[in-house]
Amino acid sequence: MSEITSAEYKKVAVDSIADPVLQSALESLQSRLGPATQNLYQNLPEGQELRKTAHGYRRKAIDNLDILLEALADNVEKNGGTVHFAATDKEAVDICLNIARDHDVKKVVKGKSMVTEEIGLNHALEEAGIDVAETDLGEFIIQLADEKPTHIVAPAIHKTRQQVGKLFSEKLGTPYTEDPPTLTFDARKALREKFLTADMGITGCNLACAETGHITTVSNEGNIRMSTTLPKVHVAFMGMERIVANLEEQQSILRLMSMGAAGQQIGGYVSYIGGPAAENHCDGPQAFHLIIVDNGRSKILADEEFREMLCCIRCGACLNVCPVYGKIGGQAYGSAYSGPVGAVVTPLLFGVNNAADLCTGETLCGACRQACPLEINLPRMLLALRAKLSEGDAKWGVQPKGKSEKLMFEAWQKIIKRRKVYDLFLKIGYVLQKILPAQDGMIRRLPFPFNGWTNNRNLKPLAAKTFMQRWKEREGGKQ
Amino acid sequence: MQKKDNVTLFVQCIVDTMYPEVAESMVDVLEGLGLHVDCPTEQTCCGQPAFNAGHQQVARAAAEKFITIFEGAQTIVSPSGSCVNMVRNHYQDLFKDDPAMLARVKAIGERTFEFTEYIVDVLGVEDVGARFNGKVTYHASCHLNRFLHIDRQPRALLANISDMTLVEMKDADKCCGFGGTFAVKFSEISEALVEDKVNNIIASGADVVAGCDMGCLMNIEGMLSRKQSPVKVMHIAELLAGKSYE
Amino acid sequence: MPGRTEFIQTIGKALGRGAGNAGDADIFTTTASLEQEALLARIKTRSAAERKQLRGVIEQVAGPLHIDFHPEDNLDDIAGAIGRLILEKDPEWGTEKSVVRWDHPLLSRLHLESLAELDGVTLHTTDCVSGGQGAKVSAAAQRSAIRENVEASFIGITSADYLAAATATLVMRSRPGHARSASLVPSIHIVVIEEEKLLANLEELYTLLKWDPEEQAQGLTNCLSLISGPSKTGDIELVMVHGAHGPRELHLFIVKGEAP
Ligand code: SF4
Description:
heterotrimer, B: Rossmann fold, Rossmann fold, four-stranded parallel beta sheet, 13 helices, C: alpha/beta, six-stranded parallel beta sheet, 8 helices, globular, binds iron/sulfur cluster
């Protein structure tokens, strides 16, 4: 279910770079959302300081997670809801299957939820003979195409209007069109039927509020409100870290999340849901279940080096600026979590060795941190993961990766240790480089293992005399 | 401006071995500003490549060597933002469990400055009296800009070079795709990124792309050269030194 | 709640709970800060002139948020304007025109049923669900009747508890007579709200919800919704389309405060 490997990373990356349609989609995503988000931060009435403050709120919530979850659970139960705790993906799925069985559920409508992707819920529901409809337009497209989401907020960003048009005419039987409003209407029509007949709505939780006992869901489409209003049962999944203590903190974070996710001041629809509909209310679900999922998060919590990652609110802002994501797209990351956030979260949740390429496949440019509404230090955690990969780590069960790189760096360490040895190697290099193919005084082809550099670019050769040599000569001349 | 202050050069290995003229220009500028420059010639590399690849043990050894060499220096100046970032920020990560070493690397980090930062923030100089005839565009290196928050300083120095036209390229602060060993391990991604960068440079119409880090500029130059573009890469020190005393 | 104890224990262990590490005592805020008190006071004493200014803010932000803000500001004119909307607009899913509204005093005062031009249009109200003993129909039957009416309606008319001007955010809570679906399922959502309900921004809203004694007594209910504009999506090539699943249009009327 949750088998992740990054072996495909490079291969998919290469394919993606060669796909001009995908390249233009990514370019358009990044050139629009990246600057829009930055612009909103710059105009925050509270000033950019709010981002640090909000990071502090999140961090404090994580440091008090046990207290907050107990409060949330008590409050939800007081409001008539049922709270479940799932230590693993399997437990979470089973709890949901049981609820579905108890309510004789045949049809499910789903709001976009990363954690249900993570635990493979859809597959399990379908196995149980339940009809599952993803209702976020992007997720709906992905589900029809039987693909994986490639962006945590805009899951179908890799699909063109023509591809969607073709898909809809094949799967929905609607006349072919490549007009986004018409396509949106076709989906609206197909899904309205689903909403009106579903007997269970499944959603995620953007950020729960412990003191009031509510989960919050955010969407622009209204699909989550539909899923939490019309079916008789509402099941919400939440990663155990998605919580804050109180309303005032939540206000700041929800606003920042909206800025990061969609370049908006606030998401179009924000719902606070605390329980099933009251006896004398006109509508709303008769039952509300909240499933709180650990599935590897407590291990992250226990490690001071990575605890910060639990502050993440999955807004996707880091994807909208990452130069690497901007080239390779989301598919390469091999799990529901793509981009910089995926590069850290996927190894932590699914095994560092399994996702080795994810840890090393970034330039560490820091754009993610600058875009993150909470300024989460993803580069620092990538470096920490790389250290585990290079040196091994018992706590995380990491095997040191290939010996050759390690040996190379150890040899390098010996060389740089003494200037004399270093100079000797430089001399040898200077002589040897002359046999390499050249172009206008630049090296045109490097030998293995450095050959990657020169596929499409040249390299400046070593200088005849290092600066240190020149300096010594100069200082010598002075005397 | 203080008189005849001592500055000690911390020369990025790429500059030392491939672009020695950059360090020479830096010396010219610093001496032109009335400083006394010295340079410990035992230095090699700060350990950044190993650190970024996760080989902390190796990086730690390099850091220890660095400390031995530079601990006595009063002010350390380097022509590379990413080397300064290594010393100022990451050395602290390397020794976070060793309080005695931590104190030492902290102290050294506080005395280590990037070249333009030193001139503008420490010396308070924004115009070194340089002259350059040509059209220049500036690439804002990631570690310099995002980790050290140095952007205003080089731009101020560039803006004050006479006769020079400064043009802004698209996405000047976007990563060039270098990333150390990344450039070799994930060369396809790296090349795609530097290709965008080079296209933006060429589209700006500049004759020269200037920057504060030869790591990025080496990568950019490699692609410019392969494309047989006439655009030249220059470290900001070369621009500031080049014509300043003609 | 099976699993709860172990689950929380696992977290406690990860956090290194034990002597000297019991968690932050101040994690839940229980008294308002001076600034929050001041903000509450400011909200409560807002003058008519200031409210008018907030109305101006909404007028400005409505456009970019794709909200149709209407200038009518007294009940008669608003009723007339709504009547015209009902006549002009076409149903999305069928041909029959029916409209649903909350059972809400402000909306009752519009007397839409007495508009002559709306002859032939069915007007539904989402009545309180009583059910219980002695009721003629069961709660379930009442609910399914409401559901049917909402599904059949192409326009839903509601009010709102508050309207935060800076982001044009409407605040609605689930209450007897206030169907959640009325603001969601019909293709067009019309909101009528009194000027007294205007707030400057979300910070004011949250300060009220958190610290105002009346609000505290009421709580957020089991469902509080913040609505800032009609339903929208950019999921196909980031082209913004209104009316993804929820209402395609959101019409807003603000009733002017009574003269003091
Ligand atoms: S790391 Fe930051 S920017 Fe990326 S998804 Fe998480 S919260 Fe958003």
